[in-house]
Amino acid sequence: MNEYINLNEDNIEEEHICCAIGDPKHQAGVDKKKEWIKNKLKDGHVFRKLKERGKIFIEYEPIETAWVPIIGKNYMYIYCLWVAGSFKGKGIGKELLEYAINDAKNKKMSGICTLVSKKKKPFLGEKKFFEHFKFKVIDTIDDYELMVLSFDAKETPKFSDSARKMAIENQDFTIYYSSECPYVEYEVKELSDYAKSKNIKLNFVKIDSLELAKNAPCIFNNWANFYKGKFISNTILNANALEKLIK
Prior knowledge:
Blueprint: E1 4-6, H1 27-40, E2 46-50, E3 56-62, E4 70-71, E5 75-83, H2 92-106, E6 111-117, H3 127-132, E7 136-141, E8 144-150, E9 158-159, E10 173-177, H4 184-197, E11 202-206, H5 210-214, E12 223-227, E13 230-233, H6 239-246
């Protein structure tokens, strides 16, 4: 039987958080992520992982306090569900999702939701996987879809009006980001150094509050790229990827 751990104030310093496991260059990002989780625990944030050394976890919390431009009441929002490497195909993803669904039901929530895309994109869940559990698409912005599993007939979540803009006024390459992902901290520094060395105008906007997250001008889970005022992707970039995009 698989064993799992939920992070809490007592164990979070000793436990790894899966994503950037064993990569020293991302340690600053790991520290930021842990601090972010600790601050979110009071909101009912759940980070549940397999009791093994690997990238296997689910992360969710009530939609009212979730750092995404999605509006709703009494729903859980799944930030991320990740099962990587040799752990795939063993029913672990199913167990993690079923735990979240049952947790939402036990807490008398109206349902549970998550962000996916019509075509596979990085850092988003697999649409077909959630369809298997009877999740349905209830709102769409371009290729991005909000999927919901409702437990009752109450009002379902939706994307905020700000998210539907998918555009900003600044015409320079601009990146919106937050500390939700441990990869972010290192890439912000790498991109900043690269832009400076190439004399490229590059702007960063840090989402560091619930208000900013709920009013993000695009689909946002932890990173968003804009160029010439338009949203272009949710892919976390390194210097090489930025160079290719600019070219």
